[in-house]
Amino acid sequence: xxxxxxxxxxxxxxxxxxxxxxxxxxxxxxxxxxxxxxxxxxxxxxxxxxxxxxxxxxxxxxxxxxxxxxxxxxxxxxxxxxxxxxxxxxxxxxxxxxxxxxxxxxxxxxxxxxxxxxxxxxxxxxxxxxxxxxxxxxxxxxxxxxxxxxxxxxxxxxxxxxxxxxxxxxxxxxxxxxxxxxxxxxxxxxxxxxxxxxxxxxxxxxxxxxxxxxxxxxxxxxxxxxxxxxxxxxxxxxxxxxxxxxxxxxxxxxxxxxxxxxxxxxxxxxxxxxxxxxxxxxxxxxxxxxxxxxxxxxxxxxxxx
Length: 305
Fold this sequence. Notes:
9 helices, 2 domains, alpha/beta
């Protein structure tokens, strides 16, 4: 059995590797060979500590990812998020590989954003409004900066001190970050990314300019919500997996009958992506297991070469 430790996977991962693996996974998710199974949402003995189990199979891979979110880790100075990916040896019915994936998961999530944004955002997009100042938000900023020449990253956070510290962190990485209020950021933005644990909209629909692309990265459980539903009827709606997005993602808040397009269909040209410079596009990422399986496969290849 192959065992890739957190240290090994963390040393091998990059935004480039994650982008390519996740792009392939999103295209594969739209194929007839893909089977993506319902997400299990659970909690630990302390109910505020959560975990999820996501599983999938396609023509070459089968397995699952267990992800955890433990806010109680703050007291111990440990990250809130952790993940582990298990790949089946399909010839023997046993686990063939274990990939520790705490850092991988952050790259994988940001890569989904980058792949969708690359496909849907206007090519001349330069201003990013970023909602969130937590662990994941930094990866989102770096991933988007790789695929668009950002001249400004306007960071919107709930806490002024945390926002200032986060802006400083991004600037140390060479990113053009500054703190901003929600309305100011949205009205200036070409791209809006939300990476929060919000349970109500973070901004108003009429603050969004025509031609904006929006990625909701934080809604992955019933009751979570980052975007104003009034925006949906004005926009074209894309997601990683329509049935999952409508159950636990941002699009659990859409009206019945509204059309959701799998981003994999747009990537493989079986559905239209952005059609005009003026339309608003929205991508919802609730996270699918094929992303984890493909990135684990890529990490195994990278560490064995």
